[in-house]
C-alpha cells in the first residue's frame, strides 16, 4: 500500500460525553464490530467510581487501565480506526482537552433521558472552537427519554450545533421498535429476540409501502412517515463538506448496550469522517502527505512499576512516517533522539512497530526528556501549537515534609508537572511553590505518587486564589505595568515556562485589576500569543 493510501485509510477520533452517557459501552461495541475484541466487557471502564476519591488502589488501577485504553486501534472495512480515550471525570478535564488536540474528529454521546449535560457542553465548546467535525450519537433509546425533536432542539441550543438527523427512532423505551436510517434508507428492527442480532436490517426504499406497516404496525408507520417528512422539512440536507468544516453535525439514535444503531453509526463514520488533517505549527501549516516526519506529544503516562521509572509519551504523527531506530529532532531541547521500541496500540494490547503513518499514535519510552506539547521532527525547527494550560480551579501551597528528600521532591514535582497532572507556580516574592489543579482529586494523586514513585513526602496548605491569569503587558517599560508589578507584588508568580501569572484572590479583585490597568491583558489560558 502506498504512503498516500495509508493516510487515506486512517480515522483518528475521540468519543466525548458526560460520565455515564455510554462512552465505554459504545467504544466496546465499535471494537466488537472491528473484531478487535471477542466479547463484551473486555474494555474496562476508565472512570473513577463515585466516592472513590480517597481510594488509592482505585487510582492506581485507573492509571493501569488508562494506559491500556489510551488508544484503541482496529480495522473495519479496510479502514484503520484509532479511538483516543478521553477521561470523563471532570477532575481530569484537562487531559481530555489535550487529547482533543490529537483527534481529527469526535463522536459526542448523549443520554436520551438526561439530554445535554455539563461536561458535554464544555467539551463540545472546545471542539467547536477548533472546528473539529462532530457526529452526535443519542444513546439509550431502549429507555424512556426525551422526545427526539425536543432533544435535537436542545442539542442545537445548548451546544451551538447545527444538526442533521441521519436516523430516526421508531418509538422509544418500552415501545421502541427500531430505527429508520435516512443515510442508508433502511430499517433496523428492535425486537425481543433480535436484540443481539446486528444483521437484522430491512431495506425499505418506499416509506409509503404496506411493508412498513407490516413491520412496525400502522400507528408507528404513520408516525414515522410524519416524522421523516418533518425532518426533511426542518433540517438541511446532509452536506459532507459542511460536516468536515465543523459547520454541521449529523445525528444518529441508538442503544449502545443493545448494539442498536451502532453499525449504522460506524458505517457512516468510515465514509464521512476525515482522514488525518493538516496541522498548524507556529511557523507553517503542515500537511500529512509531506514526506518528512513531524509529530507532537499530547499525553505522558508514568510507568506504574516503581522499578522501571520510565514514562510513555504519546505522540500523534502529523506528517511523514515514523520509523523505529531513526534519529529525530526533539525541537525544544535541540537533541536528536532514537527510539528502539516505539509502541503501537491495537485494541487493548500494545506492541512494538517499525513504521507508523499520519493519524497514528506511537507510545515512546522516555526517561524524562518530554513534556506535553513537545514537537518531534526530522530536523526542521517547527513547534506545534494548541496545547494550552487553563487556569486551575484549586490552589494550594506545597511544602516539603521530609527535609532529607528535597531533591526527590523537586524532581517528582517537576516530572509530574511535565506529565500535565497539575500546574506549578512559583511566587515572585518568596519562591514558595503553589500547585494548581482542575479538581481536588489531583492533590491526593500527587501526594501518593510523590511518596510511592519518588520517595518524597509533601503537605499542603490552603491558599485563597480564585483564578490564575497570564499577564501580557502592551509594553514592559511603561509606568502602568511597573505600578502593577509593585502594587500586586504579593500576588505574582511564574509558571513552569517562566511566564508571569497574576493570582487573583476573588472575581472582584480580578475585575478591579483589569479595569485599573487597561494596557495589560489578563488571559485565562497560557496560550494567548
Ligand atoms: P461512560 O463510559 O460514558 O461513563 O458510560 P458507560 O458506557 O460506562 O455506561 C454507563 C451506564 O449506562 C452503564 O450502566 C451502561 O451499561 C449503561 N448503558 C450504556 N448504554 C446503554 C443503552 O443503550 N441502554 C441502557 N439502558 N443502558 C446503557 P451501569 O449500570 O452504570 O454499569 P454496568 O454495571 O452496566 O456496567
Explained architecture:
- The protein is of the alpha+beta class and 529 residues long.
- The chain folds into three domains: 3-173 and 236-272, P-loop containing nucleotide triphosphate hydrolases (Rossmann fold), CATH 3.40.50.300; 279-377, 3-Layer(aba) Sandwich (Rossmann fold), CATH 3.40.50; 394-523, Peptide chain release factor 3, domain III (Alpha-Beta Plaits, 2-Layer Sandwich).
- 28% of the residues lie in helices and 28% in strands.
- It is built from 14 helices and 31 strands.
- Strands 27-24-26-25-29-30-28-31 form an eight-stranded antiparallel sheet. The protein has a seven-stranded mixed sheet with strand order 2-3-1-4-5-11-6, with helices on both faces. Strands 18-17-23-14-15-22 form a six-stranded antiparallel sheet.
- Strand 4 (105-111), helix 5 (118-129) and strand 5 (134-139) form a beta-alpha-beta unit.
- Helix 7 (210-216) packs across helix 8 (218-234).
- The protein is globular, with a radius of gyration of 25 Å.
- 42% of the residues are buried.
- The structure holds guanosine-5',3'-tetraphosphate (G4P).
- Residues 17, 19-25, 45, 47, 88, 139-140, 142-143, 255-258 line the site of guanosine-5',3'-tetraphosphate.
- The site of guanosine-5',3'-tetraphosphate has 19 residues, from helix 2.
Q: Which regions contain 5 or more consecutive residues with pLDDT less than 50?
A: 48-54, 194-199
- Overall geometric form: globular
Instruction: Please tally the β strands and state the result.
Output: 31
> Which class of secondary structure composition applies to the elements?
alpha+beta
Terminal Cα separation, in Å? Answer: 41 Å
Give the strand order, joined by hyphens, for the main sheet: 27-24-26-25-29-30-28-31
User: What small ligands are held by the chains?
Assistant: guanosine-5',3'-tetraphosphate
Please, how many helices?
Answer: 14
The amount of helix comes to: 25-40%
CATH names the topology of the largest domain as Rossmann fold
Amino acid at each position: 500500500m502506498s504512503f498516500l493510501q495509508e493516510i487515506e485509510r486512517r480515522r483518528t477520533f475521540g468519543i466525548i460525553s458526560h460520565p455515564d452517557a455510554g462512552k465505554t459501552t459504545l467504544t466496546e461495541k465499535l471494537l466488537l464490530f472491528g473484531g478487535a475484541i471477542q466479547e463484551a466487557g473486555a474494555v474496562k471502564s476508565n472512570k473513577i467510581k463515585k466516592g472513590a476519591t480517597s481510594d488509592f488502589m482505585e487510582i492506581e488501577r485507573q492509571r493501569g487501565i488508562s494506559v491500556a485504553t489510551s488508544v484503541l486501534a482496529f480495522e473495519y472495512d479496510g479502514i484503520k480506526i484509532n479511538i483516543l480515550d478521553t477521561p470523563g471525570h471532570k477532575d481530569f478535564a484537562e487531559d481530555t482537552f489535550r487529547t482533543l488536540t490529537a483527534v481529527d474528529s469526535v463522536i459526542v454521546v448523549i443520554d436520551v433521558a438526561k439530554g445535554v449535560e455539563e461536561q458535554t457542553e464544555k467539551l463540545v465548546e472546545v471542539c467547536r472552537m477548533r472546528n473539529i467535525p462532530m457526529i452526535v450519537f443519542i444513546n439509550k433509546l431502549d429507555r424512556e427519554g426525551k422526545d427526539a425533536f425536543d432533544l435535537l432542539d436542545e442539542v442545537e441550543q445548548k451546544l451551538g450545533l447545527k444538526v442533521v438527523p441521519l436516523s430516526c427512532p421508531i418509538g422509544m423505551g418500552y415501545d421502541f421498535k427500531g430505527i429508520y436510517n435516512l443515510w442508508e434508507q433502511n430499517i433496523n428492527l428492535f425486537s425481543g429476540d433480535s436484540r443481539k442480532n446486528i444483521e437484522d436490517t430491512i431495506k425499505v426504499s418506499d416509506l409509503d409501502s404496506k411493508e412498513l406497516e407490516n413491520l412496525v404496525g400502522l400507528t408507528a408507520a404513520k408516525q414515522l412517515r410524519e416524522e421523516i417528512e418533518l425532518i426533511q422539512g426542518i433540517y438541511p440536507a446532509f452536506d459532507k463538506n459542511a460536516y468536515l468544516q465543523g459547520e454541521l453535525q449529523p445525528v444518529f439514535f441508538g442503544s449502545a448496550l443493545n448494539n442498536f444503531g451502532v453499525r449504522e453509526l460506524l458505517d457512516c463514520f468510515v465514509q464521512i469522517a476525515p482522514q488525518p488533517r493538516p496541522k498548524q505549527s507556529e511557523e507553517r501549516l503542515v500537511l500529512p502527505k509531506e514526506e518528512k516526519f513531524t509529530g507532537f506529544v499530547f499525553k505522558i503516562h508514568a510507568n506504574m512499576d516503581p522499578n522501571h521509572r520510565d514514562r510513555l509519551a504519546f505522540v500523534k504523527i502529523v506528517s511523514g512516517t515514523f520509523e523505529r531506530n531513526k534519529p529525530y529532532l526533539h525541537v525544544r531541547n535541540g537533541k536528536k533522539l532514537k527510539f528502539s521500541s516505539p509502541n503501537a496500540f491495537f485494541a487493548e494490547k500494545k506492541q512494538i512497530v517499525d513504521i507508523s503513518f499520519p493519524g497514528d499514535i506511537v507510545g515512546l519510552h522516555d526517561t524524562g526528556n518530554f513534556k506535553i506539547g513537545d514537537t518531534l521532527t526530522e530536523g526542521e525547527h517547527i513547534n506545534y501549537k494548541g496545547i494550552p494550560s487553563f487556569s486551575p480551579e484549586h490552589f494550594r501551597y506545597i511544602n516539603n515534609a521530609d527535609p532529607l528528600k528535597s531533591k526527590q521532591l523537586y524532581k517528582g514535582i517537576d516530572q509530574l508537572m511535565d506529565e500535565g497532572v497539575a500546574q506549578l507556580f512559583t511566587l515572585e516574592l518568596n519562591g514558595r511553590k503553589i500547585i494548581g489543579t482542575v479538581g481536588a482529586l489531583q492533590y491526593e494523586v500527587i501526594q501518593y505518587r510523590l511518596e510511592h514513585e519518588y520517595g518524597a513526602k509533601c503537605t499542603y496548605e490552603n491558599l485563597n486564589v480564585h483564578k490564575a491569569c497570564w499577564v501580557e503587558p502592551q509594553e514592559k517599560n511603561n509606568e502602568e505595568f511597573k505600578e502593577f508589578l509593585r502594587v500586586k507584588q504579593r500576588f505574582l508568580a511564574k509558571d513552569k515556562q517562566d511566564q508571569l501569572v497574576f493570582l487573583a484572590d476573588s472575581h472582584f479583585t480580578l475585575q478591579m485589576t483589569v479595569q485599573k490597568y487597561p494596557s495589560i491583558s489578563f488571559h485565562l489560558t497560557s496560550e494567548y500569543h
